[in-house]
């Protein structure tokens, strides 16, 4: 049965009706505009065919609702929320869409006066998802498609003085939907601004500018093409820089197009590091418009792409339009806040995944300085899953639809110097329609590079782009001349889902090492959680929380920016990894450092260096170094003016370095921290003490409980269960349960491919510790309790023979040692374990925390660039990172001691060798079970984890696994620590005391 396309919104031969050609949005325009944002009357229907008769005619709309424009209707109570990554929520039957096609009819009136009507009236929609019809005063004005691009209609002939009626009918599904299958919530409606332009009869329609550089990269070559609605008889133009005119002229023409050229000596070139902009103004007597121009030259030379002659590295991020309450409707303020944050976090590039952003977004990128990959609104990922990926991509019947998306993007955005690549879309395989799109782009603009990851062979693209390439594959790309040896970019990597990504440094090292690799874009900026207030709880919903099926659940919670705009630990990590400055110590010297400049254009005199010598918790010397003249891509050795100082006993010393912005910039004040580095000083003065004996320890062994106590300490053991039951004083148990071995963590999103095995094959969450022996020995000043256990999990042949030694001293301290010997009496064991360590429990009143180790935020073995050694204070809850989807969090690496306290009394735990630490008010099990933070069941005690080793995070939810060295294998281990009660305030002093063993 062959159906004929009868519905406009299913007709792939129509890219629009009555729609004007796309054009530049002017930076400034003297023409009057009228915003049509605000409340519109709204009627929601299950299908367009159900529209009431005469809906497009002027008249009152009784019983209609009101809706905000712009907004998405799913977040205004209509239709339903649905999230899918790849799947179309309907059969693949292009170009047809379901009969059940949620439809919104929007209506409002516009009052126009006679003066307005002397000029033309242009109606502009900045974004409507997914297709729409427009009527003015009952007459059809046009039809538009491509959700994330503007559509303009000339409605001059349809309007009159006085009240005018405007009707817009929006279809959720259209043939265009087949090309808009991006990984995001399905959202519909007029979601970007709507406005009227009061256009001159002889208006300037378009001003296309191009600023490039000559071969010396010093002279700016400027060209402009001005297009009028009618022949532009006369136009005066000027080019200015920071308010000063640098060139000007007058142009006369009989044609509708005028070309202007200018040459500027010693121009200030635009780069993301030096976002220098010029303003080009055209005046026709009746209208004045301004567009901005940046002088920069993009080219490929010696197989690298270069900006102004320099090979650059992209440290980018993928950006979706997103807001937790408004969905895809974002304000200018949010856009600017996003861009500022990116700049503050050392990000120098942004990919508009996977559609063009608001016009304003690019103005911000121009001003703040970001390299942009602008991407066409095109993805048909669902076709991959039916193994007919090229179905429409390689079908010429769809050519116009494909080409239109690229062409209109280029026509709208080509003046922005920030845009260095045009991307033809995402995840849509390759075929004839992309070849046509590439050709069309090159005809319009050959000054930029063409990108499209789906062109797997880099047949028509200028760069070879891949996503989530593993390190091994990346190395191959870097070392072999494949795909025409085109420069490589990683359009997506470092999947920031949940806790992670880890292992970013390995990627950055590759980018920096290999010439061919020119960086990449982290996936992604924002967690797409939906703000929810329910029963007094605030939380963020993800796929499935609305009963939506099928769904990819929390796969949309994969950004470095949490929904409430809190930068995640992953964002702090990324900032440090990609920082344009790095510092390392120089072997054999305590004062020499090597500082490297990874900027592509700035000299290091743009920054200042703050240094301090820190005695664990206190700076004892500090200073600033300025005038660091280091050229881009160069490095130098500096000597810090550290004066000799006396060593305090039992104290570690560090050099803490922060690289700061020297002057105020658009995005941060002078002093803003760009990078921090810590270099441990290899100096220490050890001093040992002898424990003072107190009253004799008493030992009792009754009913399976072994008690060791005196006036200062009380430790209770179960001789049946082979464990420490409590530790503290006579009237208070500080530890409410002693160490139990543990190899499990509440799985993180990046464990998703390990989780099934870990939990349903190796039962890591089901530990059992069987007692082998318990004995004790009384000495003059201490009692030693020895416990042997066998640790394993349900139905496993691997395990550990554990020997615990508890030495209780009469002074109140207890030294604990655990030796674990790995055994395997069968064949199977996990490829690696989440961790090897112990858990203990403590009195829940001990909520104040202090630790000496990495901090202040969480750190993992493959994500600790944002942490340095120090003494930090917090609370148990404060040490938690509240991920939208609960999972392991809050770990601190390299902890040498910690103290938990109730404001007065506390428990101090000093490690023999540094261990990983987690302190939490919940168990791993409750974390694993909870679907949202409010559902995490609180534990009755403070849960303490001390890890001999804790596996890395990796980014395997969509990307590289943990590096081999960051996977915890079945192995022998040992850990040791000393417990004692302390009063808060004395812990640092107590922690520094070392005893002769
Ligand atoms: C990529 C895709 C993105 C997103 C990501 C996973 O394949 O291009 O849009 O789906 O995977 O989060
Ligand atoms: Mg996809």
Describe how the helices and strands are arranged.
Layout: E1 16-17, E2 28-29, E3 32-35, E4 38-45, E5 65-69, E6 83-84, E7 103-112, H1 114-117, E8 120-125, E9 128-129, E10 131-136, E11 139-145, E12 151-154, E13 162-171, E14 184-185, E15 189-190, E16 194-199, E17 204-213, E18 220-228, E19 234-241, E20 244-252, E21 257-264, E22 278-283, E23 288-293, E24 298-301, E25 304-307, E26 310-311, E27 314-319, H2 332-344, E28 349-352, H3 359-368, E29 371-375, H4 399-413, E30 419-423, H5 432-444, E31 449-451, E32 464-467, H6 471-479, E33 488-493, H7 504-513, E34 517-522, E35 530-534, E36 537-541, H8 569-577, E37 581-585, E38 592-597, E39 607-615, E40 618-625, E41 635-639, E42 653-661, E43 673-681, E44 688-689, E45 698-702, E46 705-709, E47 714-718, E48 723-729, E49 732-742, H9 755-760, E50 767-778, E51 782-793, E52 798-809, E53 814-824, E54 835-843, E55 848-855, E56 868-875, E57 892-901, E58 905-920, H10 924-929, E59 941-950, E60 973-983, H11 987-992, E61 994-995
Parallel strand pairs: 27-28, 27-34, 28-29, 29-30, 30-31, 32-33, 33-34, 44-61
Antiparallel strand pairs: 1-11, 2-23, 3-16, 4-5, 4-7, 6-14, 7-13, 8-12, 8-16, 9-15, 10-11, 10-13, 17-18, 18-21, 19-20, 19-22, 22-23, 24-25, 25-26, 35-36, 37-38, 38-41, 39-40, 39-42, 42-43, 45-46, 46-47, 47-48, 48-49, 49-54, 50-51, 51-52, 52-53, 53-60, 54-59, 55-56, 55-57, 57-58, 58-59, 58-60
Helix pairs in contact: 2-3, 4-5
Bound molecules: beta-D-galactopyranose and magnesium ion (MG).
Residues 85, 183, 354, 426-427, 467, 492, 495, 523, 555, 558, 958 line the site of beta-D-galactopyranose.
């Amino acid at each position: 049965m062959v159906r004929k396309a009868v519905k406009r919104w299913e007709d792939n031969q129509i890219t629009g009706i009555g729609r004007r050609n796309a054009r530049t949005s002017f930076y400034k325009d003297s023409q009057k505009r009228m915003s049509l944002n605000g409340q519109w009357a709204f009627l929601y229907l299950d299908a367009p065919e159900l529209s009431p008769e005469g809906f497009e005619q002027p008249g009152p709309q009784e019983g209609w609702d009101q809706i905000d424009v712009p907004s998405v209707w799913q977040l205004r109570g209509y239709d339903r929320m649905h999230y899918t990554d790849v799947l179309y929520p309907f059969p693949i039957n292009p170009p047809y869409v379901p009969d059940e096609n949620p439809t919104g009819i929007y209506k409002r009136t516009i009052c126009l006066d006679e003066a307005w009507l002397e000029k033309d009236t242009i109606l502009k929609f900045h974004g409507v998802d997914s297709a729409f019809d427009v009527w003015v005063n009952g007459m059809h004005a046009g039809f538009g498609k491509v959700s994330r691009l503007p559509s303009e209609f000339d409605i001059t002939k349809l309007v009159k003085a006085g009240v005018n009626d405007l009707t817009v009918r929006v279809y959720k599904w259209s043939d265009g939907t087949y090309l808009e299958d991006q990984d995001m919530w399905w959202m519909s409606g007029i979601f970007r601004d709507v406005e009227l332009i009061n256009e001159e009869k002889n208006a300037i329609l378009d001003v296309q500018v191009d600023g490039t550089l000559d071969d010396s990269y010093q002279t700016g070559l400027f060209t402009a093409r001005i297009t009028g609605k009618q022949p532009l008889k006369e136009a005066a133009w000027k080019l200015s820089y920071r308010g000063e005119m640098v060139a000007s002229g007058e142009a006369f023409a009989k044609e509708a197009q005028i070309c202007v050229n200018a040459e500027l000596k010693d121009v200030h070139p635009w780069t993301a590091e030096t976002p220098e902009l010029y303003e080009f103004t055209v005046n026709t007597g009746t209208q004045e418009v301004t567009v901005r121009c940046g002088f920069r030259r993009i080219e490929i030379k010696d197989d690298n792409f270069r900006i102004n002659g320099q090979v650059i590295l992209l440290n980018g991020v993928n950006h979706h339009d997103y807001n937790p309450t408004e969905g895809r409707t974002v304000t200018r303020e949010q856009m600017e806040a996003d861009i500022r944050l990116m700049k503050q976090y050392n990000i120098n590039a942004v990919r508009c995944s996977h559609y063009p952003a608001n016009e304003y977004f690019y103005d911000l990128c121009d001003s703040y300085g970001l390299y942009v990959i602008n991407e066409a609104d095109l993805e048909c990922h669902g076709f991959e899953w039916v193994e007919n990926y090229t179905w429409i991509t390689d079908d010429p019947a769809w050519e116009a639809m494909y080409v239109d998306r690229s062409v209109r993007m280029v026509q709208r955005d080509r003046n922005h110097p920030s845009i260095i690549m045009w991307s033809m879309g995402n995840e849509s395989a390759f075929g004839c329609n992309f070849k046509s799109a590439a050709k069309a782009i090159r005809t319009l603009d050959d000054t930029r590079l063409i990108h499209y990851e789906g062109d797997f062979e880099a047949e028509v693209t200028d760069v070879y782009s891949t996503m989530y390439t593993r390190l091994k594959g990346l190395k191959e790309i870097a070392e072999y001349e494949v795909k025409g040896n085109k420069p490589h970019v990683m359009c997506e990597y470092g999947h920031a889902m949940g806790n992670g990504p880890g292992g970013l440094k390995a990627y950055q090292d590759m980018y920096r090492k290999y010439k061919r690799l020119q960086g990449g874009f982290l996936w992604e900026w924002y967690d797409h959680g939906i703000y929810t207030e329910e029963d007094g709880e605030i939380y963020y919903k993800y796929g499935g929380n609305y009963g939506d099926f099928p769904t990819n659940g929390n796969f949309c919670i994969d950004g470095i920016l949490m929904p409430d705009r809190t930068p995640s630990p992953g964002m702090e990590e990324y900032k440090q990894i990609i920082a344009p400055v790095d510092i390392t110590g120089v072997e054999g010297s305590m004062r020499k450092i090597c500082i490297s400049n990874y900027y592509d254009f700035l000299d290091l005199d743009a920054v200042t260096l703050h240094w301090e010598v820190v005695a664990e918790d206190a700076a004892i010397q500090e200073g600033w170094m300025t005038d660091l003249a280091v050229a881009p891509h160069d490095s130098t050795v500096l000597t810090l003016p550290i004066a000799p100082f006396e060593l305090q006993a039992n104290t570690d010393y560090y050099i803490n370095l922060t690289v700061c912005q020297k002057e105020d910039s658009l995005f941060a004040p002078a002093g803003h921290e760009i990078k921090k580095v810590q270099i441990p000083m290899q100096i220490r003065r050890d001093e040992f003490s002898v424990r003072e004996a107190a009253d004799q320890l008493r030992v009792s062994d009754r009913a399976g409980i072994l008690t060791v106590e005196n006036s200062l300490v009380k430790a209770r053991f179960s001789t049946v269960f082979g464990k420490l039951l409590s530790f503290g004083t006579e009237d208070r148990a500080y530890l409410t349960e002693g160490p139990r071995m543990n190899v499990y963590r509440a799985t993180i999103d990046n464990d998703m491919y390990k989780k099934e095995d870990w939990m349903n094959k190796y039962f890591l969450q089901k530990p059992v510790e069987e007692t082998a022996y318990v004995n004790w020995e009384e000495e003059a000043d201490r009692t030693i309790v020895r416990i042997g256990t066998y640790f394993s999990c349900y139905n496993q042949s691997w395990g550990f023979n554990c020997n615990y030694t508890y030495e209780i001293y009469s002074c109140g301290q207890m030294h604990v040692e655990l030796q674990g010997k790995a055994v395997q009496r069968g064949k199977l064991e996990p490829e690696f374990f989440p961790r090897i360590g112990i858990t203990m429990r403590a009195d829940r009143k001990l909520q104040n925390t202090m630790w000496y180790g990495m901090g202040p935020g969480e750190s993992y073995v493959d994500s600790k660039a944002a942490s340095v050694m120090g003494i930090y204070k917090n609370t148990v809850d404060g040490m938690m990172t509240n991920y939208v989807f609960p999972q392991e969090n809050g770990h601190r690496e390299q902890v040498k001691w910690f103290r938990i306290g109730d404001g007065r009394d506390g428990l101090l735990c000093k490690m023999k060798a540094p261990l990983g630490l987690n302190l939490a008010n919940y168990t791993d099990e409750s974390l694993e079970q909870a679907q949202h933070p409010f559902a995490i069941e609180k534990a009755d005690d403070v849960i303490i984890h001390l890890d001999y080793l804790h596996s890395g995070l990796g980014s395997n939810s969509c990307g590289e696994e943990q590096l081999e060295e960051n996977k915890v294998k079945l192995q022998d281990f040992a850990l040791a620590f000393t417990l004692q009660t302390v009063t808060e305030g004395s812990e640092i002093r107590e922690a520094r005391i070392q005893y002769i063993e």
